[in-house]
Specification:
Thrombin, subunit H, 4-stranded mixed beta sheet, 60s Ribosomal Protein L30, Chain: A, single chain, alpha+beta
Length: 270
């Protein structure tokens, strides 16, 4: 029997995580992404026992669920702190990716520590901790139909140059107007879900590219919800970073084509 060391990490490292990319020719017949408000000790929610190692740089935790619970390697979990102690609803504290699965327990890497909400509520204890729940984030897909046509928007058409302004995720004045015009076409579409993918070129670190792509996808999502009235439950933002760059070959135009926002409509299932 392997004995796991139970410790807590006070790591302040902040990371944003990419959702596993979806093949472009597959339709999602049902999307079931569990959110913090749905967190409870039920199906798909398992206790986080603690970290494997001590120290602020510890990155792997033990989840009290394994093969017998249907956990698989590579699966993504949201770390959720249940409502308690004056906190009226569950709070997301991070994102986990399963790297090893045993019979009744699994090892997961913390790929995002803390959220804006957990920082505001828990302060120095905003990161993933022992006692939090690992909530399964499962996407059910059926290879049956093609997705509706996707819309591709270059970063440079709506944002400041992402390489000269890497920490700015605001729209240019002209970009905001252009984006609203494009999104108007989706307003009356009968879609089960609209997915907003952020993509970058392969320059820089993979981690920074993923963060950049996710932040820009989130900016688009927020505009859709706040200014165009889209239902937030039907709009999902994901950051794919450089994983689907147009080309690694440094040729004129390749980098600009890689830095893009892709809008994908998932049709309503009849």
């Amino acid at each position: 029997m392997i004995t796991w060391m139970k410790t807590l990490s006070n790591s302040c490292t902040k990371k944003l995580a990419a959702i596993v990319p979806l093949p472009p020719v597959i339709v999602l017949s049902m999307i079931s992404i569990l959110v913090p408000s749905q967190a409870h000790a039920g199906a798909g929610a398992f206790k986080i026992r603690g970290y494997l190692a001590a120290g602020s740089d510890a990155k792997q935790v033990v989840i009290e669920a394994g093969r017998t619970s249907g956990v698989t390697s590579g699966e993504i979990f949201r770390a959720i702190r249940p409502a308690r102690g004056g906190v009226s609803s569950p709070v997301e504290t991070g994102l986990l990716k399963v790297v090893a699965v045993h019979e009744s327990e699994s090892i997961a890497e913390v790929i995002q520590q803390g959220t804006a909400e957990s920082e505001a509520i828990f302060g120095a204890y905003s990161d993933v901790m022992a006692g939090d729940l690992a909530l399964a984030q499962r996407i059910t897909i059926t290879a049956a139909k093609l997705l509706a046509p996707e819309t591709i928007i270059k970063f440079s058409a709506i944002f400041d140059d992402p390489k000269s302004q890497p920490s700015s995720y605001e729209f240019t004045p002209g970009g905001r107007a252009e984006l609203k015009k494009i999104l108007a076409e989706f307003a009356n579409m009968k879609a089960g879900m609209l997915m907003i993918e952020g993509h970058t070129d392969s320059k820089g670190t993979a981690e920074q590219n993923q963060i950049e792509s996710y932040q820009r996808a989130l900016t688009v999502r927020q505009l859709m919800i706040d200014e165009l009235g889209f239902d937030e439950a039907r709009v999902t933002a994901i950051g794919l970073g450089e994983t689907e760059a147009i080309s690694d070959v440094i040729l004129p135009g390749n980098a600009d084509r890689s830095r893009r926002i892709v809008l994908k409509v998932v049709p309503m299932v009849q």
